[in-house]
Amino acid sequence: xxxxxxxxxxxxxxxxxxxxxxxxxxxxxxxxxxxxxxxxxxxxxxxxxxxxxxxxxxxxxxxxxxxxxxxxxxxxxxxxxxxxxxxxxxxxxxxxxxxxxxxxxxxxxxxxxxxxxxxxxxxxxxxxxxxxxxxxxxxxxxxxxxxxxxxxxxxxxxxxxxxxxxxxxxxxxxxxxxxxxxxxxxxxxxxxxxxxxxxxxxxxxxxxxxxxxxxxxxxxxxxxxxxxxxxxxxxxxxxxxxxxxxxxxxxxxxxxxxxxxxxxxxxxxxxxxxxxxxxxxxxxxxxxxxxxxxxxxxxxxxxxxxxxxxxxxxxxxxxxxxxxxxxxxxxxxxxxxxxxxxxxxxxxxxxxxxxxxxxxxxxxxxxxxxxxxxxxxxxxxxxxxxxxxxxxxxxxxxxxxxxxxxxxxxxxxxxxxxxxxxxxxxxxxxxxxxxxxxxxxxxxxxxxxxxxxxxxxxxxxxxxxxxxxxxxxxxxxxxxxxxxxxxxxxxxxxxxxxxxxxxxxxxxxxxxxxxxxxxxxxxxxxxxxxxxxxxxxxxxxxxxxxxxxxxxxxxxxxxxxxxxxxxxxxxxxxxxxxxxxxxxxxxxxxxxxxxxxxxxxxxxxxxxxxxxxxxxxxxxxxxxxxxxxxxxxxxxxxxxxxxxxxxxxxxxxxxxxxxxxxxxxxxxxxxxxxxxxxxxxxxxxxxxxxxxxxxxxxxxxxxxxxxxxxxxxxxxxxxxxxxxxxxxxxxxxxxxxxxxxxxxxxxxxxxxxx
Length: 754
Known about the structure:
Helix 3 packs across helix 10. Helix content is 17%, strand content 28%. It has a nine-stranded mixed β-sheet with strand order 2-5-6-7-9-8-1-3-4. The protein has 14 helices and 43 strands. A hairpin with a 7-residue loop joins strand 18 (468-474) and strand 19 (482-485). It is an alpha+beta fold.
């Protein structure tokens, strides 16, 4: 199986050009116009939905933000959110229904109708927070028109499909994917020889793989045997869960579900609404899905019935942070909470989320921002399920809905979460002091391939028991972290040695005492530190999708790879190889050299008949690996593993020749630090940013141009803050580090949050 990879690295900047008009930017509302030739399109799609065959009505045209598509398949989706009497039902739009076409690389658009949430911000807010801790769909809003009529405002949720797993899980479409939604919420398929389960709980149901078909929806070409084997291992060998399941993602998954009081999920009575993906290491990992009833809107902690009324507001506020602990019908909770280390990791993860989003009230600020974004579109929606007054009130306080979808009392988001975070932090296990991790150092910040480095840190604990620690490290996001003990050197210093290969190293540190734990960085394993490994000769930049950047001698825009000589001497290349397959030395260099401190371009176009350097392989825009082999021992001297790269964007080392890779504007055959994508203060800076560095607040001053918009981006290119008509930005909730502020969608300045 050909494997493609995506690597998450420590980057400094991502081109604004590609971030401005992101289809899932929370600060923008998309417009989708659908045109059917049939005047009875609604009845036809109701009929298709009722048939259960997944049939779609083909639209004459669909216009997405001004881009016209034809032959698009449209159908209604959803379970409880769909109703034939609704004027606004959830939509599934398949752009590639007949033709190979997409919008910004997305070919399936999933739109939710907001029938379960008076605020219409719960779903988007939940995904926004979740993406900081695990791979999760992007989400924002769109206005939908059908045959010229405004149907209403929708949530626009990224689909979990081939594109999603390619980008996030360094994998191709041969991997196993399940949507964990039972066909029978009451449980029990009644298959002979099968146990009856509770939803998509991962309980072992029997040796026959057909036992699982009522509980899971297979989204791949195969996988039933693997699903059965996973449940068997969880049942029979729970101590080996890490061999079959990504434990860290599982802990983040449970922490987010519990903290958000998202009971229409794995931890709820019906145990549903998530995806399960098997990576190239044969480990399953969960993906969050369907947050439309998070923050307490779904108010049943236990299966409804006599003696199990809906939960009160206090029940939700004080829901057990270890809900389903010891419950054999929820193997993930049962196994992970029973293990002392995993339990401490879970607490550490939950405390991180609380610290970064809830203690500082950032979640409320984000909810208000989303609320303001949708104000006009919501109030002009004649098919909305709630009034604007209800939407506004329910952000903070409970409202009571009579009849209709989601009737009854609905707790306010801040009413729930302020009390809930206080309750969780008051629990004994959340009050134990965690070890401190500081002064992380590396013996060589830019090591050579195949050398040995020491990583050390100061780790202390306020308890009488000395902490223990381990170092987790790997060469790429395609790999599992190897965990090695850190040795206590005395005086609070812990260290570990690792042997390097030719690839960059990703690492984090974990420390625990008898009661509590801490990660560094706090979001590990989702985030990590990176050490750049480079030698004399380095893969410096590549472009897997070249449509207009640079052409070869024949005027063809082919994929290209750039090498850089980091030395003051010429390096001969005869006998060296380039390859996109670690098991095959694909392309041998001719008798040539790379000049001292110079650059060399190799065209990856599978056309060796052309003059110049043309490799016998192409690069994959969805991601893969490229390795450079030396001329003596055919060992890897440099390697890069990359994910999806936008067209005409370079993937380049910054600093030039030695640093980690970043996505940026291309610097073909030249120093990578000359890219305009690595934005510092612009030469003509009409704006002044102060103070810089800053702790709580930054101000923008201008003597010429009127301030219209101020946008703050992370070093990952993620839009974090967007304000209009103000010169004052609150950054108190941001983590320490480097950020970029873009003014009037034009001028960019770097600043440091202390």
